[in-house]
Q: What sequence folds into this?
């Protein structure tokens, strides 16, 4: 019987060591997965930063800087407003005269619908 209990004891000890090894292996696996995830995140961030840098370089090369584009738009707007103001000043008196002429030149006439009403009776 002593050998039987000794064999059972050895089996329990072996089972305990096996469980510890499995637990350690799981911990190592979790640690490796976490490390791989962190490395992947770092790599993704580096790639994102590189692509952002390339995009900004492309943008500045082909479109100029945002400040340059905004300044060009502002300059164009000022130029167009100046041209419109000049056109207003040149044509203002002519337009006012045309409007006054239309208002003062009244030609009283009977409306055609009113005339049709009497012709149909």
A:
């Amino acid at each position: 019987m002593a050998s039987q209990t000794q064999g059972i004891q050895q089996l329990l000890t072996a089972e305990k060591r096996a469980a510890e090894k499995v637990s350690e292996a799981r911990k190592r696996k979790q640690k490796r997965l976490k490390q791989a995830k962190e490395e992947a995140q770092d790599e993704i961030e580096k790639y994102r930063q590189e692509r952002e840098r390339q995009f900004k370089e492309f943008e500045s090369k082909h479109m100029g800087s945002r400040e340059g584009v905004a300044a060009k738009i502002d300059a164009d707007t000022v130029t167009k407003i100046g041209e419109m103001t000049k056109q207003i000043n040149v044509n203002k008196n002519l337009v006012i005269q045309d409007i006054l002429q239309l208002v003062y030149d009244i030609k009283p006439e009977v409306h055609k619908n009113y005339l049709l009403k009497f012709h149909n009776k």
The chain is about 90% helix and 0% strand.
